[in-house]
Each structure stands twice: as C-alpha cells, then as structure tokens.
Amino acid sequence: MATSHAASAQDSGTPVEELKEQAEAASAATEQLILPIPLSNPTLGTGLAVAIVRIYEPKNAGKPWITGAGAMYTSNDDRAIAGFHSMALDQDRFRFSVLGGYASLPLRFYGVGADAGDRGLAINIQQDVLGGRVEGLARVGHNFYAGVRFRVQNVKTRIRTDPDGSSAIDIPPVELRSTIVSAGPSIILDRTDAPFNPRNGLLVEAHWMLGLPFLGSDFGHSAATASANLYRALNDRTGLAGRVSVCAAGREAPYYDLCNYGQSNDLRGYLNGQYRDRASWAAQVELRQHLWRRIGGVAFAGIGGIAPSLGRVGDTTLLPAGGVGLRYQLSKQYGINARVDLAFGKNSHAIYFAVGEAF
C-alpha cells in the first residue's frame, strides 16, 4: 500500500474536506449520531475518523440538513478536526454550506511539473492548515444553482528533512507561511436521481476563485476547477459512471494551491501531489456490478495529466490509472456502500478504504 503523500490545500481533496465527506456518507448509511469511520488512501494513510453528525429535514426545506463535527488520525500522523453544516431553504430554492477546520500534515513535496513527478525525489515537510469555506447558492433554473463561494486559509510549512538528497527541490520563502483569502462564483447542475449514490443522471460543478489581497491574501492568483459526472443504469444489477475534471491555477499560485493530479479521487492509484502544476485534467469510467445480496464489484480505468497551463494540456505526458474494487451496501435506503479499491498508476499502486463512492 502506498503511504507517502504530498499536500493539497485546495477546496477538494484536503483532510478537512475528506473528513466532512466521510462523515456525511457514513451518517446517511447508519443513521447514527456518533460514527467511527475507518479509512485508508495513499494521501492520508490508514486511520480512523470519529464524527458526530445529525441529518434532519425541517419543514419546507426540500432537502435534508446535515450538521456535524469530527476528528481524524492516521498512520502517517495526519491529524484533522472539522465542523460543518449544510442546509436548504424554501423547497431547496436556496442552499447554504459552511466548513471549517484544522489539519496538521507530515508530507512529501516532489516539486512542480511532470518531470519532478517522474523523478520521484521529494523533501519531507510539515504543513499546518487552518481555514474555512462558506458557500451560498440560489436555484436559477431547473436543477441549476448559482452563487458565491468564499474561502480563507492560513498555511504554515516547515521543511523537516531531505532524505533523498533532493537539495534542488525548493519552496519559496514567501510560501512557507502565508494566507489565502479568495472568493468567486460557483455553479451546480444536478440532474441525478439520488443524493448519495446516483444510478442515472448528470452532476456538473464549477468554481472560480479569485485572490483578494485587499482582504489580507498574500496571493492574488485565480484558481478554477470544473467537473462533470455522468451516471447510467444498464439494468437492475449493472451501471456505468464516468467523470471528467479540469483544474487551472494562476501563475502566482503557491505550491499548495496548484492543481494536483489524482486529487479528490479524480484518478486513483497516484499519490496526491506527486504530480502538480498550474493545470491538470483527468477522465475515468467505472463499471458497477451487483454480485450477491449486499455485495458488489467495480472495475475502473482512467487517464489524465498535468501541464504548465491549460493551453499546453495537449503536450502532457499521459498518466494512466485503473483497478478493481469490492462494495458492501450499508444502507438500502440511500444506496451507501463501504468500498475497498485496489488501484494502479504509472509505477505506483494504492489501496483505498472508505464510505461512499469515489464519485
């Protein structure tokens, strides 16, 4: 199992976001308030999260509210705490969410660019992240939401050791202790048939964040992410799921806010952050098969890459990924599964254990 990892402080794929997603999925599956959640992936290592979560639906909300808090510790000595709340109002006409937390992460930094990722040399760093995110959305069309996301993040980085003799790998001093304050538009198109594990439909998300130096941000860069998930049931026992995603970060972006190949399960089988640059893309497809009673299986494959900019994505070296997995259905009502995946990338492999699907 791959256990070393590199950092990503972007809105998705961070330990705080991972803790929130695991807690939400597990609470829907078990309908309990205090939840032990075992987890394993190459970014975080193997460990345990404990969450206190409540799912409820006030009158005229139109969508369940989720309120919770949790803590996580892993074999890589990753530690995180988080609190979160998401809600809908006026028959799901308005959506609001807030997330805040702290994470302390012993990480490996490989440098920037495809060549740095291929070399596989890294320095050990310690990264402490404190921050939060607020998002408000309004329904502006059929299943279409638009609004604003605001983010504040303080990151402290300390270089610990240089075990590989990688003295050429460096982090600019200005990025060792810095703050990002950013805001920008968010859009969501949700035409799926279930909130936790869809079998049919389309889910599209896009976020464009702009740095706000006048509010104290040390960087004024832009960062944009977009993704589209497509789900199609072939019959009662078989389904297909596909995902495409793209990321772009401005030239002033610090190392921890660049695009990371493999982040947030965009492609399993790679260490999150070994391949990082100012642009990334990924595409994957997964075959989902019910096998027997609560048992299911999946097979997945994908491809992607990183580049210095979106305009140079066509010149990237292709990075493939694929693998197989098993599923155990925890909740028939919501279709929530516990999953174990074995994934292979270019000269790497990883085992994932989590609650909920990868996408």
Q: Could you describe the 3D structure shown?
A:
Residues 1-12 have low confidence and may be disordered. Helices cover 6% and strands 57% of the residues. Strands 1-2-3-4-5-6-7-8-9-10-11-14-15-16-17-18 form a 16-stranded antiparallel β-sheet. By secondary structure, it is mostly beta strands. It has helices spanning 15-30, 114-119; strands at 34-41, 45-56, 65-74, 79-89, 94-109, 123-141, 144-161, 177-190, 201-211, 222-233, 238-249, 259-260, 276-277, 279-292, 295-307, 319-331, 336-345, 348-355. The two termini are 21 Å apart. It is built from two helices and 18 strands.
Descriptors for this entry?
2 helices; mainly beta; disordered N terminus; 18 strands; about 55% strand
Query: How widely separated are the two ends?
Result: 21 Å
Helix content: under 10%
Would you identify the regions where 5 or more consecutive residues have pLDDT less than 50?
A: 1-12
* Beta-strand percent range: over 45%
Structure in a nutshell:
The chain is mainly β and about 350 residues long. It is about 5% helix and about 55% strand. The strands form 2 sheets. The protein has a 16-stranded antiparallel sheet with strand order 1-2-3-4-5-6-7-8-9-10-11-14-15-16-17-18. Strands 12-13 form a two-stranded antiparallel sheet.
Per-chain topology:
Blueprint (H helix, E strand, L loop, with lengths): L14 H16 L3 E8 L3 E12 L8 E10 L4 E11 L4 E16 L4 H6 L3 E19 L2 E18 L15 E14 L10 E11 L10 E12 L4 E12 L9 E2 L15 E2 L1 E14 L2 E13 L11 E13 L4 E10 L2 E8 L4
Antiparallel strand pairs: 1-2, 2-3, 3-4, 4-5, 5-6, 6-7, 7-8, 8-9, 9-10, 10-11, 11-14, 12-13, 14-15, 15-16, 16-17, 17-18
